[in-house]
Amino acid sequence: MAEKDTVFKGKIKQEGIFNFNDFYSFAYKWLKDEGYKVVEKSYGEKVMGDAKELLIIWEAKKKVSDYFKFTINITWLILNMKKVKVKRDNKEINMNSGTVELRFQAVLVKDYESRWEDQPIWKFLRGVYDRYIIKSRINQYEDDLGDELDELIAQAKSFLVVEGKR
Length: 166
Prior knowledge:
There is one protein chain. By secondary structure, the protein is of the alpha+beta class. The protein is built from three helices and five strands, in the order βαββββαα. The chain has one domain (3-165). It has helices spanning 20-33, 120-133, 135-165; strands at 3-18, 37-48, 51-63, 68-88, 91-110. The N and C termini lie far apart (48 Å).
């Protein structure tokens, strides 16, 4: 079984005006451009009058070597989302208002193909390999994954702020 280490957890939350379709596409495209394969694990929608609540769960994975894989889990929680019309450049455009909350979790997966799991001696040797031989490489990959998630969060915050202020 692969060994998974949670490297980073975080969340962003904004209440106001945004364009859900554009933001959703932006986040998906950003992950794809960084080499991640994105899978939508769950999509739930609850309609209450003219408002919606959405719960979406994404899992994005990227192979970085034969031994390591990055996984980013994103949980989208959109509350009280309503359609609104906003005037921009003397044109009315459709936007959304509500509360957007995204929860992020970055996981470094080691031995994702479970090659070191066949026999107890191999499992022991994997522990030695991880702790003593490639410790600095593990630390570097953890830093790289944390940096990628920091960048995604910063880009998402910027997108929401810019979109909301237009």
